[in-house]
Amino acid sequence: MSNRSKKSDSNHPAKFNKKQGAYLQALSSYSGPIPHPDILAHYDEIYQGAAKIIIDRAEKQLDHRVDMEKSVVKSNILNEKLGIISAFLIALAFGYIAYRCAIAGHDWPASIIGKTDVVGLVATFINGGGRNIKELSQKRNAE
Question: Which residue segment(s) compose the domain that 130 sits in?
Fold first, then answer.
């Protein structure tokens, strides 16, 4: 019985004479294209002008990124315009072929070519618009 009482006494926190201590841990977080101003100040203490160099490089990187995005947007616009013009010319060609078939008395081929032409155009514009919407939503989610 004495063993049990010793075990129960040793598990009781009030019986121990351990020193209890506490410590405080402070965490801070910073996110951005350049280091936190305090860190920049430390860089400047180590190497005079380091903060200016870091900020100048960040500005150059930002300018480069903006220029690249502008060129990508211009290229995408040009590609879309060329795609629309090409689709229109192909549609005109198939429409003309369907017309010539109809005039020559070939009603079934004219009907099939004409319907395929219209369905292809509609499908192209629907799928093209869906792709652009999907790309925009992916970009928004990435930001």
Answer: 32-142
Q: At what angle do helices 50-103 and 107-142 cross, to 10 degrees?
A: 170
> How much is the pTM?
0.54
Instruction: Name the residue with tokens 């060129």.
Output: 71
CB-neighbour burial class of residue 90 (10 A; exposed 0-12, middle 13-18, buried 19+)? middle
Tokens of residue 14, six digits: 């009030």
Our CA dihedral for 95, 120, 87, 122, rounded to 10 degrees, sits at: 110
Q: Which residues of the chain have pLDDT under 70?
A: 1-21, 128-134, 136, 143
The answer as to whether 17 is a domain residue is no
Number of domains in the chain: 1
Q: Is residue 19 part of a domain?
A: no
